[in-house]
Design brief:
The structure holds two protein chains of two kinds. Chain A is mainly α. Chain A is built from six helices and no strands. Chain B is mainly α. The chains are: A mainly alpha, B mainly alpha.
Amino acid sequence: MEEQDIRLPQPDEIPEREKEDAMGAYLMMFATVAMGLPLPILNLIAAIIYHAINRRTSRFVRFHSLQSLYTQIPVSLINAAAVIWFVRILIHDLWPLSDVFIGFLIMALAANVLYVTVSVVAAVKARRGQLCYIWVAGRLSYYQAFLRPDPAEKTATANKPPV
Amino acid sequence: MFGKRFWLELLAVLVLLGGLWIIFSLWIGDSAEQIQPPDVPVEREKQLGELLAGHLFDRFDRVDDPDVRHAIDRIEERLLKAAGPTDYRYKIHIIDSDIVNAAALPGGQIILFRGLLEFAESPDEVAAVLAHEIGHIENRHVIKKLGAELGISVLFSALSGGDPYLTSEIARMATSSAFSRTMEREADRYALQLLQDAEVNPRMLARFFRRLQEEEGRNSGFLQLLATHPHAEERVRTALEFELDETFESRPFDLDWDAVRGSL
């Protein structure tokens, strides 16, 4: 599908249920964050499950659930690295904490704050039926949600008359 | 597939996160370096050093063997001659303890533990450790570290002598808490140059820390030097990368180190 052929869904065409599902892709992160802090990978698993459940609903919901997932991947990796690094320090008794590790923790904190901020903004936009493009994740999600064949359409044409 | 803009965004995100990491790491290092001793006169530093050394002597026996003393004096003499004029009058004490450690106290007092002398394979290795401790003292790291951890007013309130618990705590911190990475780098830079000037091979610093690292797995309980002087890997590398003068030649100490160790 070429980019110029696409007609993107407009806010007044999107059902309320889809807007809520799209918003949920970002807000679901807050539900798992308490559980995910010690094990950052849990957030990522929750985002993958949410996307798997909603990927066949509509391109609009798929876009937002993908964008939420892609945004979460680097943050989860950074958080997981911080946890693994810290555990390694505990096990190998590498006190005091090095400047490089403390610098990494502050960077991880900044990345998490940025992640929460853009997620809230994206959730609000999704609830209004709007698309918003977070850096990198936005373009990836746009490509996958709008430029690739719709899995829901594939299912719809799975049953065909006899040849 | 995603267009030039996608790759630019990806690059920007990577640069942003990597840049934040580097900036914060350097900032932490710099803030440690920026801890300044607030106009502490050297005399006061010396008084504090003597108080702490006295406290340690109350708790530990000292090694006073004349052969050991003679060896340490020869090493000290050569290092201080190469160091040139200094505000401090150095005193090196040997504590009778198995622990492999050395500590710099304020005002020019250096504590060597017997375990370190037993672990050292040559007087050159002891010289390397001493040069490093002198580096901490000349850069006033001890007073900076203690001042940052306790506060200068608390530190000098110990001089009144009325609070043995406080003195004990300061002595514990001086001998067992670690210096920052920046301080270690400064002390190493100083030590490597000093060793070269004193005609001792600066690579001895690398050799000593490498041996400590190898020993760590086998007998870590006694190797406190690695805990109080962290970042050993980086320090070994720095010592190995140190550029020796083309004319450099090491001059061996005229000491029978095995006999010295036998006297311990």
